[in-house]
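Researcher: I need the complex structure. Ligand is zinc ion. Inputs:
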Amino acid sequence: MRLIPAVLAASLLGLAFQAPAAAAEKPLAGRIIVLDPGHQLGNSNPKFAKEMSATKFNGSIVKGCNTTGTATNAGLPEATFNWRVAKRLRTLLEEQGATVVFTRSSNSRDAWGPCTWDRARIGTEAKADAMISIHADGAPASGRGFHVIAPSAIKGWTTDVAKPGRRLARAMISGMTRAGAEPATYLSSTLSIRGDQTTLNFSDVPTVIVELGNMRNKADAARMSTTQGQQQYADWIAAGIESYFS
Ligand SMILES: [Zn+2]
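Model: Output:
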């Protein structure tokens, strides 16, 4: 049998030699994104009461380590919803070339925290290009939709990140809205600038809190409770992140 060069052999077989997609072609290549799935299932576990009772001044007020979060009326805990969305979002972001770091490694009744100030440090230590804290709200049942919280400028605390945080928040809102997410119907603005959020105040990288919806609203809770709905929320956040880096 005559030996033929591999390229010719491949073309005879109808195979195309394709170079693997260069990393630079992926829209989030080289980006470090920290995802903070809000709360932790064990935050409500009495055996962690001591750990949860830690407090710190956050630049504007004294806040506790962390909280239990809210839940749907049917009992889906916010910690679990945030966790599921974050995992789906991680897959999407990694497909686009990003390096993704989580602020917690489990969703378990046998785990607590980390405290919000430690979650903020994880973003700083990872030298994150952006940090997204994933939450859901527990507002009056009639309202639904998402909103984004960015830090106000507090001297010695957030003067370095207030502006980039606001830019990240605006990009998140425009990207998510364009992708189909409904802005909150129960607030006067989709963007809240707040000085009392520990995760934002302790962070030294652009960080926002995304409140994906209202767990007490029937329509939002229904979406939050299915895997398709959780994927939808992940898709929306990914669209916001793409908008920030485009
Ligand atoms: Zn929350």
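Model: Summary of the prediction. The chain has one domain: 21-245.
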